[in-house]
Design a protein that fits this description.
heterotrimer, A mainly alpha (298), B alpha/beta (345), C alpha/beta (325), A: 298 residues, mainly alpha, MetI-like fold, 13 helices, flat, C: 325 residues, alpha/beta, Rossmann fold, eight-stranded mixed β-sheet, four-stranded antiparallel β-sheet, 12 helices, globular
């Protein structure tokens, strides 16, 4: 209710009902997508309230309970230091979901801005932008990461920024391609010939029609970023331990104690799978629901 | 006779003189050099009067669509002058051009590509009003959209639907409603019925004529189908490889075509009557339209022309008035061909 | 007279399955004799192209499926033929020409090679002989400078020349039947006239039968001997071209004739369109599919589907109404 303060009072209930209608359609027409949304919300909730929900601290070491298999006391078992894996997964949800969504979101925004502008304007501008994208992409990602992290030090923000930029610039290619093919449509020419502003064409005609690749770009990036962060942790460039991330748990103790305590890898692995799967099915559902041509189809 | 001669008083609504649109061809991989140009439109002149339909016919690649895009100022001009409602628009920038776009609209060929699939029909039809800030109140805006839909033979409740729910003919009606939303004086129609089924074409053709009578519209009707063009046009210009070869009132052109190309074009159209076809002499034009990149010298048509003379390969004929209504660009007609070596005017 | 080259009986083709099943071709019968040109006329969704494809069992399966009927080629049912024997007929005894000449030719191979291939395959010629014949054929379809052009690639040909090359390829094995699906729709009108005359003359010369699929009533009038008019997957009228044009008996045919602007009539009169929208194959009415748009429609048309009945001689129509008034 806070977002629509400057709107005339009459249009507020309509807006609310449109959102409700959309949610209604999501559950009716795309039950799988709705399940994805629910799973995702559950993880987000767990992450946000990890402090309250977690039975133990994420770094609460208890040497007596080393490598205990899952039980009622330790739902997902314990790790090599006797820390509760369930609690760590909850706290991990906080970090991983934040990193995943922020970095993927940033990447998508960067991709859309570069891709749509470069693709729509075209010509020499497009050529110059694309050569710059080429130059950036030919630079090994790892070097950029190491340089940035060694300058500003490891932490959440640099990781999000660097991963977001790296993936965003690469992904702009896909959006640019989609933009170029949309731009060729006669309705864009028609709107231009009516005297519409570039702003209007971009937001009313180009952007809604490149939503499908945008959504797919975002959903595939989420999983990628969460895993990429684990790679960084492995190199000591990720979120520094003992802060738990799913990627860190997988690649750290999870791998070392794979045989003695398979739950160490299984628990964060399953969490990761669920979140990635949930975002993917929800993304697909969103894509179809936003496309008027798919109305009434499953 | 419902489709009478238009009232042709005053200055022409649109006057195109010596319009040229050349597209550069680039060469080279690293350093792009301009190695030549495609003369898509090369010195085209014509007028469209108020309430009149000028048909622009020609085969693919003759530059008829480019001419339309040039008049809309959607493609850069190489030369020439376009006057619309008495104002020279050939040099206008985007901002100065904007208010004029209300009076100058276009209907496109592809009924599927010309409507944004993500917008509701009502929003599509109302978009020109929004762009030019003339929506008025919510109620007035909605009423105008419904009026427009009714005008083109659609139901007002269709405003809430999306384009994919409509057939090709209905989509073309939506396109037309959008084009007339701002009460334009000139509508450019680029092959508006060629993508439609035969039984639907007549509906849309009739709609164009009805709207012309009711709203006093002028059309520049660009098409390749000679029968359709004859049906809707008052005057017709025939284009070949970027130039107009003949321009004449409808009946004059179809009864007595002067240019050999016009003659061949008309002879190539099969009549829907087997008996007439059995007895008709089929004088076919041989060969195919040459490439625009490398057009023949002199008169572009001379390699295919059954009546070509030596002069035709050397000099391009000027569009010359024959009588007071028609013009033709052919060495067979008009002034005696000038001697070789004399500078072309 | 001659026995028919091809006889199609009660052909039906369906697309999709379950609730989304659509009958694209329904109970279609026709035949074509040597040296004869049969035009199948219809608009989009009339089933004319699907009919053409199903004659050589080229309907993509799934989603398509030929679900009933017989296709008798010289008395042999092609629907019962083995995959090997239908392959030996395709391109050899029945040839097909498509609308889009660019995508019908392989851009990576020379035109000569593509014409020679069926000759070598079906005609059991050596490559050298097949190539020599390809050169002859290109000359026959009046491609200028055929001896040199035989080594050109398709992109070096214009649209009209590509279609000429397709005709050369179709004629290579001296087929008994040529099926041309909208062969000139992508071409300019002056080129269209050249191509169709060429096709017509060459089929006359070899006494092959020609099935011409088109939507252009002018093309039909100029080139066809007999006509099948299709609407919503069914034949609604068939007969000789003269009969169909001089004395159309189905309201749809009548409507089509009245709705096209004609060069041989006074200009400027309002056209008489067929009202309504093209049929939705997924939601066809129980009765006659044309009934919603028909100005002769009666109560009976909504209940029953009219069958194709003779109007005397070989003129057939599927309609209950009396259209003579």
């Amino acid at each position: 209710m806070t977002i629509a303060l400057d709107r005339p009072a009459a249009s507020r209930p309509r807006r609310g009902s449109a959102t409700m209608k959309f949610i209604g359609r999501l559950f009716r027409e795309k039950p799988l997508g709705a399940a994805g949304a629910v799973i995702f919300l559950v993880f987000l909730f767990c992450g946000l309230f990890a402090d309250v929900l977690a039975p133990y601290g994420y770094n609460q070491i208890s040497p007596i309970n080393r490598l205990k298999p899952p039980s009622w006391q330790f739902l997902f078992g314990t790790d090599n230091l006797g820390r509760d894996v369930f609690s760590r997964c909850l706290y991990g949800a906080q970090l991983s979901v934040i990193i995943g969504f922020c970095a993927a979101g940033l990447a998508t925004i960067v991709s859309v801005v570069i891709g749509v502008v470069s693709g729509y304007i075209g010509g020499r501008f497009d050529m110059i932008v694309q050569r710059m994208v080429d130059a950036w992409m030919s630079f090994p990602d790892l070097i950029v990461l190491i340089v940035v992290v060694s300058v500003v030090g490891p932490g959440l923000l640099p990781i999000i920024l660097v991963l977001g930029l790296l993936l965003g610039i690469g992904g702009s290619r896909i959006i640019r391609g989609a933009t170029i093919s949309v731009r060729e449509n006669m309705y864009v020419t028609a709107t231009q010939s009516m005297g519409a502003s570039t702003f209007r064409i971009l937001f009313r005609h180009i952007l809604p029609n490149v939503m499908a690749p945008v959504i797919i770009l975002f959903t595939t990036r989420v999983g990628f970023v969460i895993l990429a962060e684990s790679g960084l942790s492995f190199l000591g460039l990720g979120v520094p331990p003992p802060a738990p991330t799913w990627g860190g748990m997988l690649s750290g103790s999870g791998r070392t104690y794979m045989l003695q305590g398979p739950w160490l890898a299984l628990a964060p692995g399953l969490c990761l799978t669920f979140v990635v799967y949930a975002t993917n099915v929800f993304g697909d559902a969103l894509r179809d629901l936003l496309d008027p041509r798919m109305r009434g189809t499953r | 006779m419902s489709h009478a001669e238009p009232v042709t008083t005053g200055a022409p609504l649109l006057r195109v003189s010596d319009l040229k649109v050349h597209f550069p061809i680039h060469d080279g991989v690293l350093i792009r050099r301009r190695s030549g140009s495609v003369k898509a439109v090369d010195g085209v002149s014509f007028e469209v009067r108020k309430g009149e339909t000028l048909g622009l016919v020609g085969e693919s690649g003759c530059g008829k669509s480019t001419t339309g895009m040039a008049i809309l100022r959607m493609t850069p001009l190489t030369g020439g002058r376009i006057e619309f409602e008495g104002q020279d628009i050939s040099g206008l920038g985007a901002r100065k051009m904007r208010p004029l776009r209300q009076r100058l609209q276009m209907v496109y060929q592809d009924p599927y590509g010309s409507l944004n699939p993500r917008m509701k029909v009502g929003d599509i039809v109302g978009e020109p009003l929004v762009i030019h800030g003339v929506t008025g109140t919510q109620d007035a805006y909605r009423a105008r959209i419904q009026e427009l839909l009714r005008l083109v033979g659609l139901r007002p409740d269709m405003a809430e639907r999306y384009p994919h729910e409509f057939s090709g003919g209905q989509r073309q009606r939506i396109s037309i409603a959008r084009a007339v939303a701002l009460n334009p004086s000139l509508v450019l129609c680029d092959e508006p019925v060629s993508a439609l089924d035969v039984s639907i074409q007549a509906q849309v053709v009739n709609l164009f004529q009805e709207l012309q009578e009711r709203l006093g519209l002028s059309y520049l009707f660009i098409a390749h189908d000679l029968a359709v063009v004859r049906h809707v046009s008052h005057r017709i210009a025939v284009m070949y490889l970027g130039r107009i070869v003949e321009i004449a009132p409808r009946d004059m052109l179809y009864r007595e075509p002067l240019h050999p190309y016009t003659r061949g074009l008309l002879a190539a159209v099969p009549l829907p009557d087997p008996l007439a076809e059995r007895t008709r002499v089929h004088e076919e034009i041989t060969g195919e339209p040459p490439s625009v990149v490398n057009p023949p010298s002199g008169c572009h048509f001379h390699p295919r022309c059954p009546m070509a003379m030596p002069i035709c390969a050397q000099r391009a004929p000027e569009l010359t008035a024959i009588g007071n209504a028609r013009s033709v660009a052919c060495h067979l007609h008009g002034a005696a061909p000038a001697l070789d070596g004399q500078a072309a005017a | 007279m001659h026995s028919p080259v091809l006889e199609v009986k009660n052909l039906a083709v369906e697309f999709g399955s379950g609730a989304g099943r659509v009958r694209a071709v329904d109970d279609v019968s026709f035949d074509v004799r040597p040296g004869e040109t049969l035009a199948i006329v219809g608009e989009s969704g009339s089933g004319k192209s699907v009919t053409a494809l199903s004659l050589l069992r080229l309907v993509p399966t799934p989603p398509g499926r030929i679900c009933a009927g017989e296709i008798l080629f010289h008395g042999e049912d092609l629907l019962k033929a083995s995959e090997a024997s239908i392959r030996s007929i395709r391109g050899n005894r029945i040839a097909m020409i498509f609308q889009e000449p660019m995508s019908s030719l392989n851009p990576a191979l020379t035109v000569g090679l593509q014409i020679a291939e069926p000759l070598q395959l079906h005609g059991k010629l050596t490559w050298a002989k097949a190539f020599e014949r390809a050169r002859e054929l290109l000359g026959k379809v009046r491609i200028p400078d055929a001896a040199r052009r035989v080594n050109a690639h398709p992109h070096q040909f214009s649209g009209g020349m590509r279609q000429r090359a397709m005709i050369a390829m179709a004629l290579a094995c001296k087929p008994n039947l040529i099926i041309a699906d909208e062969p000139t729709t992508a071409l300019d009108v002056t080129v269209q006239a050249q191509i169709l005359s060429l096709l017509k003359n060459l089929t006359k010369e070899t006494n092959a039968a020609l099935i011409l699929i088109t939507h252009d009533l002018g093309v039909v009038a100029r080139y066809a001997d007999r006509v099948c008019v299709m609407y919503a997957g069914r034949v609604v009228e068939s007969g000789s071209a003269q009969d169909i044009y001089a004395n159309p008996q189905h309201p749809y045919t009548l409507g089509l004739m009245a709705s096209i602007p004609r060069l041989d009539q006074e200009a400027g009169q309002r056209l008489t369109p067929i009202d309504g929208q093209p049929p939705d194959l997924a939601a066809l009415p129980k009765g006659c599919a044309f009934e919603p748009r028909c100005r002769f429609a009666m109560a009976r048309c909504r209940r029953e589907r009219p069958a194709l009945e003779s109007q005397g001689g070989r003129h057939y129509r599927a309609c209950f109404a009396d259209v003579s008034c």
